[in-house]
Amino acid sequence: MTASEQAYLSMTIVLARRNPASVVCDLASAEAAIYELASVLEDSRTYLNGKRADAARRQAKTVARRLRRISSRLYTGPCERVRGHSQLGRYVSVHDRDVLNDGGLRLLAREVAYVSRALRKLSPWSGASMAVRDSSGENTASRMGEIGQSLGIVFRMITLDLTAADLSGVGHERLYVVRAIWSSSTVWPSGIADRIRASSREVGPGVFLV
Questions:
Q1: What is the pTM of this model?
Q2: Does the CA dihedral 169-172-174-177 come out positive or negative?
Q3: Which of 8, 110, 122, 158 has the fewest CB atoms lying closer than 10 Å?
Q4: Residue 198: how many CB atoms within 10 A of its CB?
């Protein structure tokens, strides 16, 4: 096993309680929303205009709610096997549902909610705003942008277990940002199976990472 594959095995693997196709779409949408928020946080104009600051705060609250909603549909944790692959001991098993959690999404949602509260304090309409940011907003934008990018990186540590999922009804444009493990039992949307195979690597007997 290569060093990159060993690093992969330390990542968070999550399993949908039900309807993994829907979770795929939700995770892709959430990731796009996080990076959109990061882009807003990197913009110095966000901290010089009250309406922009308030819009960013509302956006962060929406992202936090979305992450909490997705978290309620996921499991994660160590297990002895996943669908017969005994050597993949860190993968999620459907038999561990009662003891698993959401892979840290709820914690991530808490951090995004913290960003929302911070934006309220940084608003130009706040009496303390000039005490906590530079007059141009550039230094604040740099710091907040780094936070936003960090949130995105944490989100990308989540890998969805699709080793027995039927994704035939999912639009292929919704799948390109989803990190997942899959197997020969995975049913991909028409027209993208070859592309998935080409961009995947085998991380265990009959199990692949894309």
A1: 0.77
A2: positive
A3: 110
A4: 8
